[in-house]
Design a protein that fits this description.
Blueprint lengths: L4 E5 L4 E5 L14 E3 L1 H39 L11
Antiparallel strand pairs: 1-2, 1-3
């Protein structure tokens, strides 16, 4: 039984908002952490900033991996892989 507020379940990534006191969703083994509004006002912009910074890094890493693999195959004399024909 919990009081009114917002509760976060890290294992499922869900946020339960309790309008009044009561029982949280899920089973007895589920763990929830109470989240207050000031904390969310700090964490949400930081999470957004992290996403904005890491998305281009992930794009560059994927591009470098793909072209690095193709360059390595070319240097080792494997050339292009022939396409499958039906």
């Amino acid at each position: 039984m919990v009081e009114m507020g917002k509760y976060y379940n890290p294992s499922s990534g869900t946020l339960a908002e309790m309008e009044a006191g009561g029982r949280l969703p899920g089973g007895a083994g589920d763990r929830y952490f109470k989240v207050n509004t000031p904390t969310m006002m700090v964490i949400a912009p930081l999470a957004t900033l992290l996403f904005v910074i890491l998305l281009p890094v992930a794009y560059v890493a994927a591009f470098a991996t793909l072209w690095g693999y193709k360059l390595l195959r070319l240097l080792l004399g494997m050339g292009h892989t022939p396409a499958l024909h039906h």
